[in-house]
Amino acid sequence: MPPRTEILADRVVKEQAQAAAALELAKTLRAGEIGRRSGLFSVPPVLAAHAGRIEFARIAGLQPLRATLGSPGWESRVAAAAAALAEIHRSLVLPECRPVPGLPSRNLHFLHGDYSPTNVQIDPSGTLWILDWAAADGLGPLATVGP
Question: Which of 91, 95, 127, 141 is the most exposed place for a label (fewest CB within 10 A)?
Answer without folding.
Answer: 95
